[in-house]
Design a protein that fits this description.
CATH architecture of chain B: 3-Layer(aba) Sandwich
Number of domains of chain A: 2
CATH architecture of the largest domain in chain A: Alpha-Beta Barrel
Distance between the termini of chain B: 23 Å
Radius of gyration of chain B: 15 Å
Largest sheet of chain B: 5 strands, parallel
Protein name (chain B): Methylaspartate mutase sigma subunit
Mean pLDDT of chain A: 93
Helix content of chain A: 40-55%
Strand order of the largest sheet of chain A: 1-8-7-6-5-4
Shape of chain A: globular
Structural class of chain A: alpha/beta
CATH superfamily of chain B: Cobalamin-binding domain
Organism (chain B): Hymenobacter actinosclerus
CATH topology of the largest domain in chain A: TIM Barrel
Number of domains of chain B: 1
Structural class of chain B: alpha/beta
InterPro entries (chain B): Cobalamin-bd (IPR006158), Cobalamin-bd_sf (IPR036724)
Order of helices and strands of chain B: EHEHEHEHEH
Strand content of chain B: 15-25%
Largest interface: A-B, 34 and 25 residues
GO molecular function (chain B): cobalamin binding; metal ion binding
CATH class of the largest domain in chain A: Alpha Beta
CATH superfamily of the largest domain in chain A: Methylmalonyl-CoA mutase
Low-confidence stretches of chain B: none
Helix content of chain B: 40-55%
Distance between the termini of chain A: 59 Å
Low-confidence stretches of chain A: 422-426
Shape of chain B: globular
Number of helices of chain B: 5
Pfam families (chain B): B12-binding
Oligomer: heterodimer
């Protein structure tokens, strides 16, 4: 089989050179005709956009029998079951739509994605996302060790298929919300190093919008700087920013403000690509029309960045903290083994890396995050992470037992902030 | 002894936050909680039920597959010896279509759940049911053993 041309990677690189932010929706329908209509609509959007095929949860968890049964019985799934459809079906889905001006990425959420990678390659697609940590720890109970082995095999499937394949690390979006940016930066970089160690050339680093614009811009700068140090200062990688993935504003106005802010942060923080949300996020799975609306207006919001004020002193201060913590986490990991997969496993086993609020059996589970008085997301407890004393922020003092109400308030922070313009956490 | 809640979700649901929140809520309402985490296969739930013999099983799901897998879950788990009368609750986002979820809730209750909740509206009802489960446990434990 001929390798796919590097549509995805080249498109983002070309737009970046022209100073254009690439926008991308989340989109997945189990009905193939509907999926094709969705892709077609995004392809015709008058902004630089990439198409998305989001897979369903049965496919994501390897339950192909249930996916097949649902498709045969006309039940609606929460995404496109790419492994269940035949290669001909998948090629027909993309025929005449995907091309150099409209690349398509497969999005899934699987810790053991061999069949998804194979189906992606057979469908002629050149881009997917995830990673051994980011698609394992937050999403279930598959042992981290197995996920690392599987992702190594999958990376090599792409590498063997050709030099043009691209994987985005989802590591900067762990748990969707309430994760301190330093560990997000460290995880996405570690996954990138893992992909590189397994032979992959083209990749992207991710980061999700948090609870404060200045802190997000700082985190994007740190990600860029560490990326240049660890991956090289070239066009083989880029940064993708995500509109907030947690509990969303319920009002139209609030949702719109949050999305606009994310577009501006992406722009000002120097990301090349943005994954958007829609104003209906809090209520239902968006229609294709909602996605089109969000793509266009996110792109134009990003272009009009002048009204968003970057507080340079605040950003630099936040960046210094994130940089020190992220560098420490990465140094700690890289010292555990020359093999990145091994190092990841050891870091989590010892609790040197610990993901707040993650229930996975292989996560140490002693660290906690909280939203600080200034609106930044930070550590409430660092558990067994051996941060040196000078790095430990004094505002991190033990905050007592977390109640369901406290948690709900933190989870609702952005919702309240944008729905009602609440200035800070009470 | 505190009442024991087994907290779980359907096999395809990878969400965490609902489970973390529900664990705290159940603990604050006087339950000891065993949280099985996201993506729980039916056989793991069944073996956890056998091992822990919970007073209540709470299924929290928000990925939209609750109306499909919720039924299989209760059918499978009811087969576990000693669990035929244990109250089961399911709640969250039961399907991807908000306008149909209330119909699915009825189907799930017919399949054996004591109650199926859509969104947060049913929270007071749910808390009241939890109180009943707790007080029944207390009553049972203070009654003299049968002759």
């Amino acid at each position: 089989m001929r390798a796919s041309p590097a549509y995805f990677h080249e498109f983002v690189t070309r737009c970046a050179r022209q100073g254009k932010l690439v926008v991308q929706p989340r989109m997945g329908f189990s009905d193939a005709a509907r999926m094709r209509q969705g892709l077609q609509a995004v392809a015709h959007a008058p902004v630089p956009s990439i198409g998305t095929i989001t897979l369903d949860s049965f496919t994501r968890t390897g339950d192909f029998t249930s996916a097949r049964h649902a498709v045969a019985n006309g039940k609606t799934l929460n995404g496109y079951p790419i492994v269940t459809y035949s290669d001909d079906d998948n090629r027909a889905l993309l025929a005449g739509i995907r091309g150099p001006e409209f690349p398509v990425q497969v999005r899934h959420g699987s810790s053991l994605p061999e069949e998804i990678f194979k189906a992606t390659i057979r469908a002629g697609l050149d881009a997917t996302e995830g990673g051994p940590i980011s698609y394992c720890l937050p999403y279930g109970r598959v042992p981290l060790e197995l996920s690392i082995e599987s992702w190594a095999r999958c990376t090599r499937l792409f590498v063997d298929a050709g030099e043009t394949y691209h994987i985005e690390s989802f590591g900067g979006c762990m748990m969707g919300q309430l994760c301190p940016p330093s560990i997000l930066v460290a995880i996405t970089l570690a996954e990138a190093l893992f992909f590189r160690q397994n032979g992959l050339k083209l990749l992207s680093l991710s980061l999700a919008q948090g609870t404060h614009g200045q802190q997000d811009i700082a985190a994007l700068r740190v990600l860029r700087q560490l990326g240049e140090e660890l991956l090289g200062r070239d066009e083989s990688w880029h940064i993708v920013f995500y509109t907030f993935m947690g509990k969303f504003p319920e009002t139209y106005h609030g949702a719109r403000s949050l999305i606009e802010e994310s577009a501006k942060i992406a722009r000002l923080g120097g990301a090349e690509r943005l994954i958007v949300k829609t104003v209906k996020e809090a209520h239902q799975i968006p229609l294709v029309e909602d996605n089109l609306n969000a793509l266009e207006w996110s792109y134009y919001s990003a272009c009009q960045s002048a009204d968003f004020f970057v507080d340079e002193a605040q950003v630099q201060q936040a960046a210094a903290v994130i940089m020190a913590e992220a560098r420490f986490l990465l140094d700690t990991l890289l010292n555990l083994s020359a093999d990145i997969g091994q190092a990841m496993q050891r870091a989590f086993a010892k609790g040197y890396w610990d993901l707040p609020f993650c229930l996975h059996p292989n996560n140490y589970g002693r660290s906690y995050a909280r939203i600080q008085a200034n609106g930044y997301t930070g550590w409430a407890s660092t558990g067994n992470i051996p941060f040196p004393r000078q790095l430990v922020d004094t505002t991190r003092a033990a905050s007592g037992r977390l109640s369901s109400g406290d948690l709900f308030k933190m989870l609702s922070y952005n919702q309240l902030r944008f729905d009602a313009k609440v200035p800070a956490l009470a | 002894m505190k009442a024991l809640a087994l907290l779980t979700t359907v096999p395809s649901d990878a969400h965490n936050w609902n489970l973390i929140f529900m664990q705290l809520l159940l603990e604050e309402n006087g339950f000891t909680v065993i949280n099985l985490g996201p993506c729980v296969p039916y056989d793991l739930l069944a073996s956890a039920c056998l091992k822990h013999n919970p007073d209540v099983v709470v299924v929290s799901t928000i990925n939209g597959h609750g109306f499909i897998e919720g039924k299989a879950l209760i059918t499978e788990t009811r087969k576990v010896p000693g669990l035929a009368d244990t109250p089961f609750f399911i709640g969250g986002k039961l399907s991807t279509d908000a306008t149909l979820s209330h119909l699915y809730a009825v189907e799930l209750e017919l399949a054996g759940y004591r109650k199926a909740f859509n969104g947060g509206d049913g929270l007071p009802d749910f808390l009241q049911q939890l109180e009943q489960i707790k007080s029944r446990k207390t009553t049972l434990s203070v009654l003299p053993p049968p002759r």
